[in-house]
Design goal:
Distance between the termini: 53 Å
Number of helices: 12
Oligomer: single chain
Shape: globular
Number of strands: 21
């Protein structure tokens, strides 16, 4: 085994894509919401998904031929639902994906949704080892899993580690739902925001939170307070499948969300993206529920449990949300030339669904994540100008 004589503490200078680092006795946990936001929402799902480091990566320069990282991984599992794939750590060298690893063992957070009880099964410290790297000085990026919590310990190498100080990469801040976090993507560089960011060379901070793109004021304040050269917010699907609000509340909530962002970013290019195509919620309100017949056969699929006729009394569907988001953005362009609207079906539409159906009726698969990212990259490159 190589002699890894250099131990480097993991600090903010070696990390990208996070909002805050929490120091622990073992090391650090990257968070994608600040502590002041986390305490304002006791929802246990949000607490889990904001600590799943989608888009977060270790970034440094080194001549090392071997890199090791100690970590504690935590995976969530829903009782009665097929287990999710293990998280993957992607290694990129000078921008090229070259290797990947998974933690052999991880703590299991088992959640029984029928009782609300969560149990934990601990696991020991894991060491990820990447070896056989070239001896020249190179940019090393280790993308953390988008679907499991990672507590980082020691970084060990056989050559010095230097922070990557390139400040020329534009900062792209994105907010969205589980699709933006990366549900059903295979690896962290395969989520659609990561695909788009890597194609354009932008510095991504991904505030995509599974089940939690809810127009929360603390989320708007987090975006307001985070540096960004480009901002995108993808809104709608969680409002429908959680049956969170009706039309009367929706438009003022969107305006308030955007107003708060503009308090900190008055002229930053801002893109409002409506939902991608999702047949179960196009014209049927939520709430979304598990398909129990599919679960009985070991398959995870979703259904919309609302009634079409309830749209007339203010229930939200994706069709309703697209219409109103477009109207809201058009209204705001009178005073804000830097706000833009993108219909999500431009990224994944009805024709795409024929060829690439949503496996669980709600989330895209790995190929569709790649497609969405590739289609979004030109908008990102142009700063939202179509």
């Amino acid at each position: 085994m190589d002699s890894l004589t250099i131990a480097t503490p993991i600090t903010e200078s070696l990390m990208r894509g996070f909002i805050e680092l929490e120091e622990t006795p073992f090391g650090v946990i990257p968070h994608r919401l600040p502590a002041k936001a986390r305490v304002q929402c006791p929802d246990p799902q949000l607490a889990i998904v904001e600590a799943e480091p989608s888009g977060v990566r270790l970034v440094f320069k080194t001549k090392a031929t071997t890199v090791e990282v100690d970590l504690l991984a935590t995976r969530r599992q829903l009782v009665g639902v097929p287990p999710r794939p293990d998280g993957i750590y992607d290694l990129c060298i000078d921008g090229r994906l070259t290797d990947h690893r998974s933690a052999e063992q991880a703590s299991i957070m088992r959640i029984d949704m029928s009782t609300g009880i969560t149990t934990r099964e601990p696991a020991p410290v894991q060491t990820l080892r990447f070896n056989g790297l070239s001896q020249h000085e190179k940019l090393v990026e280790i993308w953390l899993p988008h679907n499991e919590i990672t507590e980082l310990g020691c970084l060990r190498t056989d050559a010095a580690v230097l922070p990557f100080t390139n400040t020329h990469r534009a900062l792209w801040l994105h907010h969205g739902s589980s699709i933006s976090q990366g549900s059903n993507a295979v690896s962290p560089t395969g989520t659609w925001p990561a695909v788009a960011a890597r194609l354009t060379g932008l510095n991504l901070t991904n505030l995509g939170f599974s089940g939690n793109a809810m127009l929360d004021p603390f989320m708007a304040r987090t975006i307001r307070d985070t540096p960004a050269d480009l901002i995108s917010v993808k809104l709608g699907i969680n409002l429908v499948n959680a049956d969170l609000m009706q039309l009367r509340a929706f438009s003022p909530a969107v305006h308030g969300f955007l107003d708060t962002i503009r308090d900190g970013h008055p002229t930053t290019p801002l893109l409002v993206i409506s939902p991608v195509y999702c047949p179960i919620h196009e014209t049927t309100p939520g709430p979304g529920i598990f398909d129990l017949q599919a679960l009985a056969m070991g398959q995870l699929k979703f259904l919309a449990s609302g009634r079409h006729e309830d749209v007339a009394i203010g229930k939200l569907t994706l069709t309703v949300i697209r219409q109103h988001l477009q109207s809201i953005v058009e209204m705001r362009t009178k005073d804000d030339s830097n706000i833009h609207y993108l219909d999500g079906r431009t990224l994944y539409g009805e024709e795409d669904h024929i060829r690439l159906p949503l496996p669980d009726r709600l989330h895209p698969d790995a190929e569709t994540h790649r497609l969405i990212g590739e289609r979004f990259a030109p908008f990102l490159q142009r700063g939202w100008h179509q």
